[in-house]
Amino acid sequence: MDGCPPTPLFTFGVIADIQYADLEDGFNYSRTRKRFYRSSLQLLKNAQRSWAESAVRPEFILQLGDIIDGFNKGPGASERALDTVLREFSGPAEVHHVWGNHEFYNFSRSALLRSRLNSSALHRDRDLSGDVYAYSFSPAPGFTFVVLDAYDVSLLGREPSSEQYGQAMDLIKLYNNNDDLNCPPVLEGLQRRFTMFNGGFGQEQLDWLHALLTASDDKRDRVTIVSHVPVHPGSTDPVCLAWNYEELLAVIRAHSSVVCYMAGHSHDGGYCQDKDTGVHHVTIDGVIETPPDSDAFSTVSVYADRMLLKGEGRVEDRVFLFPS
User: In a 3-state reduction of DSSP, which class is residue 151?
Assistant: First the structure.
């Protein structure tokens, strides 16, 4: 922290993949990793207590998706689980909710747009169509955060009769011929990303992001992009990568304003710095696979030339120097 002023310009909290359910511990889809459904709520409480007791309290919280687990799906259970978790987010800091695959296991896209998980109400960009969940906000002069919809192109949350569902099915079937589309099509390599629990970014959203970043370039803003699904192969296991990650990376690489991309989804976390742009790609470790005696959240302090991520428990400390 040498050279940094004692007080940051602002701070924010980050937490990912809580996946709460009122269930005994279980395992992941392939039964290789233990999941702590009920105790994930206590880890969220630990994070909230830490943020509340910080000398500099976070301006906002980034909740990077999968707030409750798909096992809650059922009459009334999804709403009860969501109420339980959102009660813990009732502090003074604004919460920006990202949508992941487990949101769509529990709710339709139209239901999510009407729910308390739609945090875009005060920030909505009118250039986007009604059901694309993407928006931007500025917590301080010179800084912009962009929330992206990684399931804009997806089999999740779309009606099977819709044009978007048909387009997503056509795309995934080019690479995955398994009866179970949650099963990766290959054992190794980037093609593993073509599963039903991933998704992609539609052309309208990509065009909107390009226009937003063009304006940010002109203003010399520092832009952080957040979404549920990682987009850099160096920051995640390929099975958790966005379907059209190359297109999103191409947009980022065409602009000078982006400094960081934050995601969840891959529960072991990850990090890389893009060699061409210097953009930091960080994937935050998931609460759901964190033992009850540990933690998985972080607090990010923002300065004029860097962001300092202070991790707790499984989450590593990191320094994100802004590209020159």
Answer: coil
For 67-117, how does the pLDDT look when each residue is reduced to its tens digit (9 = 90+)?
999 999 977 899 999 999 999 998 889 999 999 999 999 999 999 999 999
Closest CA to 120 of 82, 128, 155: 128
Alpha helices by DSSP H, the chain: 40-53, 77-87, 101-106, 109-113, 163-173, 203-219, 245-253
Amino acid identity, position 316: E
Hey, what long-range contacts does 201-204 have (CB within 8 A, 24 or more apart)? Answer: 201/148, 201/149, 201/150, 201/152, 201/153, 201/242, 201/244, 201/247, 201/248, 202/132, 202/152, 202/153, 202/164, 204/128, 204/129, 204/132
Residues 17-35 have pLDDT tens digits of 999 999 999 998 778 899 9
Q: Which candidate, 212, 256, 265, 192, places its Cα nearest to that of 16?
A: 265
Q: Which residue has the higher pLDDT, 124 or 324?
A: 324
Pairing of strands 258-263, 222-226: parallel
Structural contact between residues 299 and 49, judged by C-beta atoms closer than 8 angstroms: no
Cα–Cα dist 100/109, whole Å: 11
Buried b / exposed e over 9-27, threshold 16 CB at 10 Å, is bbbbbbbbbbbbbeeeeee
Please identify which residue in the block is written with the tokens 């120097």.
321
Q: Decide if 171 contacts 159 (C-beta within 8 A).
A: no
Strand partners, 15: 63
Q: What is the pLDDT of residues 146-201, one digit of tens each?
A: 999 999 999 999 999 988 899 999 999 999 999 999 999 999 999 999 999 999 99
Q: How far apart are CA 243 and CA 1, in angstroms?
A: 37
User: CB atoms < 10 A from the CB of 127, how many?
Assistant: 10
